[in-house]
TrEMBL record:
Gene3D superfamilies attached to this UniProt entry: Jelly Rolls
InterPro entries named among the record's database cross-references: Cupin_2 (IPR013096), RmlC-like_jellyroll (IPR014710), RmlC_Cupin_sf (IPR011051)
Signal peptide positions on this chain: none
Pfam families: Cupin_2
Domain named Cupin type-2: residues: 27-97
Name used for this protein in its record: Cupin domain-containing protein
Domain of life: Bacteria
Residue ranges of the TM segments: none
Amino acid sequence: MSTEPLRCREPATSTLQVEDEHVRVTRWDFNPGAETGWHRHGWYYVVVPVHDGTLTLELPGGQTMVAELKAGVAYSRLAGTEHNVVNTGTAPLSFVETELKGLPG
């Protein structure tokens, strides 16, 4: 039996672009209202937005955080980050996520 909560939102689409012993690169595409589902990052990662947009991060303990993304402006997060990512904007949103396998959490 799955431990993930019942989804009420459309799932975001992930497309694996590169994977080898050093990195995993995934493109994430979100329609308005789409979500990744709750997950924990096992490695340090870098995100490069393809489009401007607004994401809401649902965090442990019921907290939320809003992130305003700008196309081409990268940001990084440490391994161990836990969240559900939701496109709370009014337009489709995409980003490319690069996970660095040499920096586990």
